[in-house]
Please model this.
Amino acid sequence: MPTTLEYTIPSMTGRTVVITGANSGLGKAAALVLAGVDARVVLAVRSLEKGRAAAEAMGGDVEVRELDLADLGSVRSFAETFTDPIDILINNAGIMIPPLRRTAEGFESQFGTNHLGHFALTNLLLPQIRDRVVTLSSLAHKSGAIDFDDLNWERRPYKPMVAYGQSKLANLLFTSELQRRLTECSSPVIAIAAHPGLAATNLFGRSGHRVRDAISAAAIGLISQSEQHGALPTLCAATADIPGNSYVGPGGFQQTRGEPKLVGRSAEASDAEVARRLWTVSEELTGIGFPL
Model:
């Protein structure tokens, strides 16, 4: 059963938070709050120009670093040049239902960006992380399936929403296997997952079909919550006293809106064997393994 979380965001003085994709949407909303409670916030973003504009609007101790999760060379460069201790890594960036595209390494863009990019980034930064890794999933994980025979949509006709569901399921499986490994090596670091419910962000309206995108945006606007409310599960996952492998989402109607709670996940997202297999495949695809 979902568990209500009674929490307030504490002072973050002296703590460093790295947030991917924080120049807009949920990441920007979370960064604004964390900067407001005196965290050092690092916006890891693809566009330095957009990142700097977002940072200027925030105030506080905010800096901008370049990171393109669709390019493992960029991920490695970020990790090599950012050597400071990190208290919290928030794997927030993501893309949703674009036309079929490929990352720099040839991965399907949603699987490559949403899962493999964050998988690589987390493992490269893990020796510097002192508190926790927060990874954003989605309600769409419930319709997802991991097709190990065609993870990158090279054989099947491409279906954007199915591919998105696979990437978001991968985020949850990654979190559970990361927590298992952290526990096994007695690390104090924990892995947490979160989802925003149905939030009106710039993820919607990117399918490439103008009429469909307009209808989608209008519908989402009627039933969704704001980016600020959508960021609350992320903030809770990043700051609340909760156990590793928790999953935080809105506690309202079918997890689409409301105050953050500990929520359930699909049976597929709880499959430990699939999580281990996905981890092994992800290591093979990225060339990056668990460093502890």
User: Anything to note?
Assistant: Strands lie at 3-4, 16-20, 40-45, 62-66, 86-91, 129-136, 190-194, 247-250, 260-262. DSSP finds nine helices and nine strands in the chain.
